[in-house]
Amino acid sequence: MKTELAPAQIENYQKEGWLIVDDFLAPDELHALNAAVDTGVETMGGNKVSGEHNESIKDDSQTYYNRVFLQRVNLWRVNDDIKNFFLNPTLGEMLCQLADINGIRVWHDQTLQKPAWGNPTSWHMDVPNWSFHSPNAISIWIALNDATVQNGCMYFLPGSHQQADYERKGGFSPDIGALFDQYPEFREIEPVPAAMKAGSAGFHNGLMAHAAGPNMTPYARRAMTCAYMPDGATFNGIQNILSKEHCESMKIGDLHNDDEQTPLVWSQNSR
Question: Where are the domains of the chain?
């Protein structure tokens, strides 16, 4: 895992809101992560979100959304190899350097596998949909196979995270450009495709506007991602991937400090 960062990479991430690290994983690490994802997906079956009280959240292959990608959330709960990968303190420290924070917790992981001839992913932001608000949330997106313009790589709007808020967020629908009705100023930003070779990784701010193209090939585009939040983030009243029971147990303003739900990965205080 290539976790050492140059000062220019940190500066560029904080300015532009995204960064690609080529060959982030060595070939053996990529092979192991691919195998772990396959095992985790098999373990979850038709369940989209792992964990108690989430068994009712199932795939519906007939919907537009499920032709955007196969999605399985919180594989770290069902597969120790994935848990050890995304809860690696060395990775956590790297993410803290990029996000300029002192501690970091997992929000959720997910595999996003855009099927052959899969639909595009509409422009959206992440944090406005999540159960906390922070300008310092960060996600890692690992290409399990080559992510190309042809098979649906991601696109970013550089710098958009600096203009974003928590109310306007776009959404997942056939209207790929609905976000631009909410942010007309974004129409002037030139999108950047984030094509990546297998084993490379992209990092993006939780308020970064991003999307992915359609898969115009007969093969799936496979990715494994994990979203992280700053240690000290608080509940904002949005359920998102929390179970109904967990959500009802929290009040707005409560700390997200349950290590069974949002485990601590790295903290400056624990060095």
Answer: 7-262
Right CATH for 7-262 from 2.60.120.620, 3.40.50.620, 3.40.50.300, 3.40.50.10890: 2.60.120.620
Chain centroid, CA 229 distance in Å:
11
Cβ contact 157:186 at 8 Å:
yes
- Supply the pTM of this predicted model: 0.94
Question: What confidence tens digit (pLDDT) does each residue in 4-33 have?
Answer: 999 999 999 999 999 999 999 999 999 999
